[in-house]
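subagent[fold] <- orchestrator: predict structure for attached chain, return tokens only, no commentary.
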Amino acid sequence: MDVTNIVRTALQEMIVPELNNIKKENAEIKTSLGLINKRLDDVNNHLVDQSRRIDETNERIDNVRTELTDKIDNVRTKLTDKIDDVRTELTDKIDNVRTELTDKIDNVRTELTTKVDETREGLEQRIDTTNNRIDQLTFQVGKIAQEMERIKREESVTSDILTRLRTLEQKTANL
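subagent[fold] -> orchestrator:
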């Protein structure tokens, strides 16, 4: 029996403190759970209150929407009537202005056609004169290009001669 007592004592020393710790933690968890449940109840009550307020606000918004819709319809009707009146008046004025402008445009068109014809004749004469000048310049540019080609060839020959002279000078200096 001695072994049984030793095992029992060992188990009591190991398990009983653990059981006490578990009971203590369980009590703490129950306390926390109670506080959390209380907080959830408070939040639920707050949500119910907010939902009620939202419903009241939605009802007020619907009332204002109906009132504004009626006022907008009245203003729209008045504006439509005024727009129709103004449209008629403006159409009459536009027709009068169109007639006056058409007459003026016809007069200006006639004057401009005459001036354009006169200007065209003058420009054609100037173009012919300018074309003659361009032809002369083109001929002179061609002559200058030929002269430049001749000068380039001479320059190339001169450069070649200078290069050969330098080579001879170097060979002579080395002797």
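orchestrator: received. Logging for downstream: Residues 144 and 150 are 10 Å apart (CA to CA). DSSP finds one helix and no strands in the chain.
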